[in-house]
Model the fold of this input.
Amino acid sequence: MSEISFSNQLESKINLLKSRAKKIKLGEVAFDSNLLVAPMSAICTAPFRVLMEKLGAGGTVSELISCHGINYGNEKTRKMLELHPEEKNIGLQLFGEDPEAMAKAAIVAETYKPKFIDINMGCPVRKVVTKGGGSALMKDTTKLGNFFAQMKKAINIPLTIKIRTGWDAESINAPEIIHIAKEEGVEFVAIHGRTRTQQYQGKADWDLLERIGSDSPLPIIGNGDLHSPVLVRERMLKTNCQALMVGRGCLRNPFIFLEAFIDEGEDIAFTPSEYWEIIQLLKDLTENHTDKERTHLIQMRKHIVWMAAGLPNVAKFRSMVFQTPDLADTMKITEDYFLSLETAQKDINPHETFMAGGHG
Done:
């Protein structure tokens, strides 16, 4: 597979801004920047992950993958374990409620050569939680030592976890879980700044995340509501966390990991034509990853309309995209739209509710 390439103009912007990021090491896991992509279900596929790395993300984590699907040999689930040849700093995230099943699945996942295996302890979705996985793992901390130990023993690469602050406001137990994780050899902990009962409503509790980051015996990655380059930049300057994770913010602005390093007053901006450029690349990556044409259309539709957010006449464009049943026609409509905007700038309120049903 040929390497991904950008136009000279876009490449020069990317290289300049990527050069300002500092390589970091969280435990034994190295990343190219302290800004990472949060795992997002049905979004953090291999094509999207590798594109985000190309656009400045220091590392990525896969969408949550069922340990039972892996162990049963489910073809769709096993496909989710496949990495793109150009991915560098990728963790595969597994979910499940049984430590033996999780350990067995982790052994399989390791054969796909990720940098680390991550345990999903933060997903608030009902169908995951009711079976004892995701956020439900945080409810009984007495079981976690054995859970972590079994998985750690099964693999030869680093083990990490992603949690929330607690199950609800009355059970904020992230610090306790971090200490248990430290005892069992977990490398780092990513924390979404909401409880499970909050889902994705309200605001992430960054005051709590900063206190945890200051006192934690393990490296902490803070996550939640980092929806714009300005918010990311402001948090980077004052955080006690060793790294930050961006979820929903990179969907409307895939350049967020680069723009966070633009200095105040500096005249660097990414144009609609450059958005069109990366849309084309995402299409190529998606088509190379799977031969299912329906998947190509579904994936590209959602990313196209997310990337168009904040641009002029976007409502009309979005309607046209969803009414177009063919990918080739969709791409033509998209090309015409983005290239017609020349140097138009996005107008997005970073504090508005975006995808309140989930992700990052």
